[in-house]
Amino acid sequence: MKIRISSDAFTEELFKLQGVVNQRSTLAILSNALLEAEGDTLTMHATDLDISVSTSCPCEVLEEGKVTLQAKSLFDIVKNLEGESLELETEENYWANLNAGSVSCRIVGTHADEFPNILDTSSVELFPIDTERLLDMIDKTIFSISTDDSRANLTGAFFKVTDEENLLMVSTDGHRLSKIETPPEEFDTQADIPALLTEGIIIPRKGLAEVRRIIDPGGSELSFGIIDNNIVFKSGPMSLSVRLIDGTFPDFTQVLPKESDHRATVEKSLLEQSLKFVSLFASSKTNNIRLTLSEDGLELYASDPDRGEAKKSVPADYEGQPVKAGFNFRYLKDVLGAVNGDAVSIEIIDTLSPTLVRDPDRDEMLFVVMPMRL
């Protein structure tokens, strides 16, 4: 294989592979990228066996061929080159000679046949979806996905097309829950939607993180489809396939509290500042702080035998009986970080019931935080 290619274009496409290549796998080949030169295109693949990324860019193919090279090392080398273009040529032992300006180096490579088979996504039926809308749905749910592998069905976000023809995404780790339901815009719900999408699928956290990392909000149009228990995202020359999680997502409607008259509206930035200060006095073991709602406002309180205690009051628009509950301040912090507006509404029902957190300007989403013992 011998190619001449733009250094910037090569770097841009290699970047898309970096989150998938597995540096710690017992299979050394999974830390490599497969490079295929054919026609006037260089195609690149990377996989960890659950997530695969394929992308391509134009180049001058002087000799067709393919090879696998260590993905991270190749990316680090190419992005630090000073020349506008580089030449890459493989030897009989699959090492690669790279030349760019005054730079010349040899990179260890392996035979392309050692690389795992990549899912063929050429026949998948694709549905267009608004890029910013999908990325927003991921931002609003990814933080509350469980990291506990013993509860595999919670280690991803639940995604489906609802009976109302909206796109729904939900995640929970048992301590908090995030839900966003939004009209699809570019996604045609009248199309022949795969049954899996109407029933609901569970997309792994890492897959969603890769979509968020790779997809440019202002880039090419985004589309997705389902094939062989995988969800596939395509944007420009890039194709990302993610193996779905087998299992049943819990009935999240069971934990959604009913509407309450214990709703307070608070300035978000002021609440975040107050939470940051009061949490300095929270127990390092429980992270517990107490929130009390009254007509005087919202009071935050924390105490720890080794640190002392602190309380701070925040003005709040609230009319109702005094009510209080304890929370892990880290969970509240994550939820507040997902709210984009200037204000946030909090509905504390009692010390034991789930608490609702909303953005007053966005009815399509809500967050639930489970209380702790006071």
Overview features:
27 strands, 374 residues, DNA Polymerase III, Chain A, domain 2, elongated, 3 domains, nine-stranded antiparallel β-sheet, 7 helices, alpha+beta
- Average per-residue pLDDT, rounded, comes to 93
Count of DSSP strands: 27
Helicity level: 10-25%
What proportion of the residues form beta strands (DSSP E)? 35-45%
| CATH uppermost class of the largest domain | Alpha Beta
Broad structural category: alpha+beta
Biggest β-sheet strands, sense, barrel? 9 strands, antiparallel
Amino- and carboxy-terminal Cα gap:
67 Å
Count of individual domains:
3
Give the CATH H-level superfamily of the largest domain: DNA Polymerase III, subunit A, domain 2
Unreliable residue stretches: none
Rounded radius of gyration (Å): 25 Å
Shape: elongated
Q: How are the strands of the largest sheet arranged?
A: 10-6-2-3-4-18-17-16-11
Instruction: Give me the number of helical elements.
Output: 7
Q: Based on the structure given, which CATH architecture of the largest domain is correct?
A: Roll
Give me the CATH fold name of the largest domain.
DNA Polymerase III, Chain A, domain 2
